[in-house]
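Good day; I would like, with your permission, to put a structural problem before you. A protein sequence and the structure tokens that stand for its backbone fold form the material at issue. Thank you for your consideration; the sequence and its tokens are set out here:
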Amino acid sequence: MFGSATGNTITGNTLRNNPIGIKLWISGAQTTPYINWGTDITTSPQVHNNKIYDNISGAESRNETNFPIMVMDATHNWWGTTVGNTIASQISGPVDYRPWCTESTCTDIDNDAPIIDSYIPADNAVGVNPTAPITITFSEPVNVAISDIALTTGGNPVADITISGSGTANISIVPPMAGLLNNSTYTVTIKTSTADLAGNNLAVEKIWSFTTAGSYSFILTNGWNLVSLGVVPNNTSVATILGSASGNVESIWAYDATKSEGNEWSVYRPDSSTGNSLLSMTAGYGYWVNYTNSASVTLSGPGNLFLAGGQNTPPSRTLEAGWNLIGYYQRGSSMSASADNALRTLKDNSSPYSPWWSMILNYNNSDPINKYFSEIHNSDSIFAGQGYWILLGGKASDEYIYAPGQTDL
């Protein structure tokens, strides 16, 4: 196609199976089959409502040195697809090809930019599951590539994320297989290169941040295990925490010395639909778990000790003089702390901060063949995921508040 006048309009054509669908060459001597605009001060050629597809190159615009720069206005054409990256790969030089037609007849012209209607997690959300996808809902289907989205923490990009849902209105950013880091703040950026199926770009870049939850983790080996949860789970249901491992658990027992005599022990049996007195598991408590499978299993999930907003009270529990079954409250990413620091609320507040306990016992269940009790001294570490017997002094009526202590840092 060629011409010698300015402002030509090319419309209603089918241009396919060619080396180039349409080419504009600004030059004083170029001959057909190109459009030769000579040295005139020109207006952009209008290339609309054409079917330009199945060509090696869709549209090219070339401007020779010393000639005025001209942009080919090739908006509202059907390029054989609505995938933005594919269309962009067929364009060379100053060609304005957005928006494009979303079907071959170019009946409905879409000039409206997509809008982000909602996203999860919300801005400044805390306690976010580090393994859950980030979801964005747009006002219409959009094409999104990995280059259109950024996920960073501490200014560093997160590697190995993937994008799902491109071509729909519901986009997901899928974290790496190992999940995001616990107790970390992440920033999401949706760039303006994100476009709807007609090529209309997002008008304004969207940026927001959220903070991931901590997580609990404990190991079960064949036989009895004394375990704990370092954080309050997002879902405290025993059935949820056990998950698929419930078929290999005979029972779970918890001990609360503050309950009336004869009612200190509560139990959960997965195979019993009635009679279970233990229905939830949370931080600060120790649990005896009878696991029947010869293959060990690690149970884990998201949770927190501290949450923003109303009706979110930090965890604590009441202990009594005598034996109590407890777990370590995990502070941040500190998986362990010395007994002196972890149990800081169970010490005299006056110098020299004498402990109110006289003995701490741990049950080592890492080796299913050789399980044993060991005594924990004040300078020894106690660990998230493990349970402990602690003997508190005083009169039988004495009560103690056990809450998150200090870290070793």
Remarks:
- The CA atoms of residues 240 and 246 lie 9 Å apart.
- Residues 1-5, 30-41 have pLDDT under 50 and may be disordered.
- DSSP finds three helices and 36 strands in the chain.
- The longest strand covers residues 297-304.
